[in-house]
């Protein structure tokens, strides 16, 4: 009790002297008291771990980085959405079904899912994380991504988790692979009581990028597919043979990058490959 009170006192003094500044609008704000929780899961009536919703997880994980107004602007991906690629439909009526793009062109992955729509607010957050040295965002964004994983996938349905890799040259310039940082702490987060899923196997160097490619953001849909073709390889093929793989990236835009990774993984023996990203462009 005393340690808790001292910790609250320290936080109050710290915020008074160094108030947090919103990463998006740069205004100073006060962190809501209900967002000072440690772990973001609790026990349900049956004694089992109860995972919070994506919305609740957002309000806890990102409350120290975004002001309430910007936090409220984050848009969650909700049904109805495409059964395959996970894009939410503009109409909020009806059930999940295949979108026109997935009907016209079969994807290599099983399903792709994301907790957030890729709009202005989450774009700014991701840019702070990737390009402006705010790597402290890896933990809260990783918690959010883990919550989405638990929501969209059944317990025991994934054998191995792989991040989309960077080329070594880009890795040296940036200093980290953002996709790996998002999942690096998953085993520790899960083990600390966040969820009751089995140990999560994460492999960083199984999937590798063979050669540098032009940034996908400057290219159209068809150009992206050509740009990324044959850019990846496997360093340890035996790690994915007959395995159910979950591929992780920060943003799903056209799906060209993850689709190429999935094509390679399936051609080398993976049983199934699904995709999870932090945000989904629409």
List descriptors.
single chain; 282 residues; alpha/beta; 5-stranded parallel sheet; two-stranded antiparallel ribbon; 11 helices; 9 strands
Q: What does the model show?
A:
The protein is an alpha/beta fold. The chain has eleven helices and nine strands. The longest helix has 16 residues, at 2-17. The chain is globular.
Query: What is the structural class?
Result: alpha/beta
Distinct helical segment count? 11
Q: Return the average pLDDT rounded to an integer.
A: 87
| Main beta sheet | 5 strands, parallel
Radius of gyration: 19 Å
N-to-C series of helices and strands: HEEHHHEEHHEHHHEHEEHE
CA-to-CA gap between the ends?
48 Å
Share in β-strands: 5-15%
How would you summarize what this structure contains?
The protein is of the alpha/beta class. It is 37% helix and 13% strand.
Provide the fold topology.
Layout: H1 2-17, E1 41-43, E2 49-51, H2 54-61, H3 68-73, H4 100-104, E3 112-113, E4 116-117, H5 120-131, H6 138-152, E5 160-163, H7 168-174, H8 178-184, H9 186-194, E6 207-209, H10 221-228, E7 232-234, E8 244-252, H11 256-267, E9 272-280
Parallel strand pairs: 3-9, 4-9, 5-8, 8-9
Antiparallel strand pairs: 1-2, 6-7
């Amino acid at each position: 009790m005393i340690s808790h009170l001292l910790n609250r006192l320290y936080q109050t003094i710290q915020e008074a002297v160094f108030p947090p500044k919103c990463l998006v609008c740069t205004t100073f704000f006060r962190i809501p008291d209900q967002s000072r929780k440690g772990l973001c899961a609790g026990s349900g009536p049956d004694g089992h771990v109860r995972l919070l919703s994506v919305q609740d997880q957002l309000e806890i994980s990102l409350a120290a980085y975004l002001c309430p107004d910007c936090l409220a602007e984050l848009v969650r991906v909700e049904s109805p959405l495409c059964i395959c690629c996970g894009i939410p439909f503009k109409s909020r009526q009806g059930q999940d079904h295949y979108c026109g793009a997935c009907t016209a062109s079969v994807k290599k992955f099983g399903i792709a899912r994301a907790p957030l729509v890729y709009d202005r607010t989450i774009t700014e957050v991701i840019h702070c994380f990737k390009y402006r040295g705010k790597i402290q965002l890896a933990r809260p964004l990783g918690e959010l991504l883990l919550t989405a994983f638990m929501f969209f996938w059944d317990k025991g349905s994934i054998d191995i988790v792989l991040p989309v890799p960077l080329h070594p040259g880009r890795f040296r310039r940036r200093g980290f692979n953002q996709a790996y940082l998002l999942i690096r702490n998953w085993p520790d987060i899960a083990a600390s009581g966040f969820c009751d899923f089995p140990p999560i196997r994460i492999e960083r160097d199984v999937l590798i990028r063979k050669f540098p490619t032009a940034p996908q953001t400057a290219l159209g849909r068809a150009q992206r597919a050509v740009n990324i073709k044959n850019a990846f390889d496997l360093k340890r093929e035996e790690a994915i043979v007959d395995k159910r793989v979950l591929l992780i990236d920060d943003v799903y835009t056209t799906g060209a990058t993850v689709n190429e990774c999935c094509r390679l993984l399936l051609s080398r023996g993976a049983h199934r490959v699904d995709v999870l990203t932090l945000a989904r462009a629409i």
